[in-house]
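Q: Predict the assembly, please.
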Amino acid sequence: MQVERHDIELSVNGTIYRRAVESRILLSDFLRHDLELAGTHVGCEHGVCGACTILLDGAPIRSCLMLAVQANGHELSTVEGLAGRDGELHPVQQAMHDHHGLQCGYCTPGILMTMTAFLKQNSEPSEHEVREALSGNLCRCTGYQNVVDAMLAAAQTIRAAP
Amino acid sequence: MTTRFFGAPVKRNEDRKLLTGQALFVDDVELPGMLHIAFLRSQVAHARIRRIDVSRALARPGVTAVYTAADLGEYWKAGPLLVPPPPIEGSIFNARTQVPLAKDKVRHVGEPLAVVVADSRYIAEDALDDIEVDLEILPAVVDCEDALNSATHVHDDLGSNMAAHVRQSKGDYRRAAANAHLILKRRFLYEHGISSPIETRGVVALWNARGQHMTIWDTTQAPVFVRNGLAAMLGLGERQVRVIAPFVGGGFGPKIMMFYPEEVVLPWISMRLNRPVKWIEDRLEHFFATTHERGQIHDAEIALAADGRILGIKDVFMHDTGAYDPYGLTVPINSQCTLLGPYVVPNYDSTFTALFTNLPIVTPYRGAGRQHGVFVMERLLDLAAHALKVDPAEIRRRNLIPPDAFPYSNEIIFQDFQPLEYDSGNYEPVLDKALELIGYDHFIRDEQPRLRAEGRCVGIAVACYVEGTGIGPYEGAKVQIQANGKVNVATGIGTQGQGHFTSFAQIVADELGVDVTDVDIVTGDTDQFSWGAGTFASRGAVVAGTAVSEASRAVRKKALKLASDVFECSEDDLVLADGKVSITGISQKFIRLGDLAQRANPMRGAVSPGTEPGLESTQYFGPPMGATANGVHAAIIEVDPQTFDLKILKYVVVHDCGTVINPMILAGQIHGGVAQGIGNAFYEKLSFDEQGQLLNASLADYLLPTALEVPRMELDHTTTPSPLNPLGIKGAGEAGAIPVGPLFAQAIEDALDLKRNEVELLEIPLSPSRLFELTRMARVR
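A: Predicted assembly structure:
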């Protein structure tokens, strides 16, 4: 049985990757196992838990609900690209550290990606708006409270940034 | 020791890796030549296996091998009994443990029948469809009450479905009941769900034929036990097997079950094929292949004096243990013991029967049966308060164990085989604080009447619990000052988000005068530390934390001794701080710890007799028995009388877990526990049909609470140190999850004024649809 492969070219965190992929390969598997960007985590593979959230052309998507071939020609951002090149944490990462917004850390990459996109759209959210934005990301460790506090603090940092 | 870090909300050392996507989880392990594994799992709950034909699967391109139970030969064995039953007189216990691949019979949906090894997981899953399985389907035992008298037996050789029968008692309930002012009797149903960590389970096995060495990456909470067990099964020495539990994405109990079939099968395949192999559980598999906690049915009665004092409790309950019982009696014993709570119960008579069913295996999940017992006790007290017209908070207060009664013996045996004795506690201030924080009197007197007048249904609740934590047998730690001045600490427990990289570092940092960030903690790598039991029963900080403390103290002594030789002065004249040892009052006269570590391992000159090279020490700690933490949760909950949707308006936790190492980490543990408790109380329900099929095996249908369901919580603490360890710590990992069920039942009853309609909420989980049914049934009645 000859497996048909498709040539794709996409950018992840500013780096261009060219690969030949089988049409059925999930984008999440492609990122994790082909590109070895294993910071994107997989929790349910049916689009509910949100752990695999990445940005596609700036918008948060579930990478487990997309095929790698569908990402052809797009710009992707993953957790590996959040911190600055000098290692300086993004305000959302820093706030998660400061507020103890992570425990096992497995759902964290998805939360970081969802919320960086959200705070870009709404840098002055209410607590309820933060909770609503966060409600597509399941976390079993934190009870969300410290994540919510982290996001409110990150919003403040982002607003204050020049 | 001048305290600098111990007790402070120190931010976590482990965060950076996790926040930047650099932490290694099991599925991140990539090895050259690695093959991928998928398991063929039974789609029916109970059947005899007539034939499994794998020939078509083997013929598929990209498939390396397919194995069934028959291929495992001598290696095929039922798993070990992890926890033998406690020595309780007259107990019956029938051990029937899980097998690597089903042979002859399948006993629950999801039990593995065959395993495919292929170039990719995609191909391995394709090949599962090629396997032909011929089964003779049998009726399934699903309900644990029916299991008792069912003609269908999960284990044919047993002649019944009874897994265990245990009675424990203190005093004389019958006599107490004969003198009672009031006796109340009810049936209670409590079902706990599945822990659902966001990282499912996974195993990677790498056999190195030249080195005759096996490396296993495993999402386990107990790496040392896994190593020892697998070494024995594989015919290897313990030193030939290394088990690494790297970053693990949440555990909550089920990741300490052993041995899961996948843990047994993968290393065997790696040896046989001489290739590294990987299996990662998918979410659908997780619903069947990872253990559950599930349900109990309690027929309980309470005997009371006229003033609301408890004279005695009698409880007879059934416990669903699933298809196998590798974890012994831990869960039902915890239910039996924890029911007693923080109360004086002079007479107690508790009997349980554990039953095999054709459902996935039951093992501990955060709380580990404690919830079930606490639900029964707290609900009995609510019923009693109503019947005696005493305030629910007041009836609890009247029954609390007084502070001068500790250590307090309950005269029965706990899960650690020790007598159930509470080491220390001061319960009333915890209740007072919780009532004050929730505004109990004000709510009942002013708020609730005002809200009711507005037509709103808002109720209040308060629930108490104790939690046996920090049980033995022991843990150990090795602390070493390295030549670069950093301190390395290795311990045998696994870590799944509890912050051990930080809380243990705090203990070390204070003892050795270094910064928290200069302490590297290694957990869960058997090549670094190969003794210990694991992370369970809220014991990591208590037991391993104490070992870390003792080892640091020994290293401190060594460092001071060596420095006193270097400076030719008394140890009393030395100060250990800021990563160096200096002479008191002469701060320019110092030696860095790293240099001292190098001197402790000299190239020339003798290491004097009776001393060891290096600044290193390994110490062990085994507590005589578990330390008992306690707490009170209180909540104000609004219920929509049309939709029965809930809104938690206020949630308060006051908790006493002895001395606190890191209040920030502790708060996180409580928040997370409460969130899981809320899911258990009102959202998560495992819905099985009569064939033992789980009807809601997806995260779209099994409802884990989101940021919209979990409220902001107000926490407070009191501190009653434990006398059982030098640091005075008690465990805290499970406390948040324990009393949420009865709290919800009480608050909802109050909100909807259900008592007036003679509706009692005697079951968990509740849900909007269940509340609708219960209230409608009452109306019809």
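The first helix of chain A runs from residue 27 to 34. The helical segments of chain A are 27-34, 91-98, 108-121, 127-134, 145-160.
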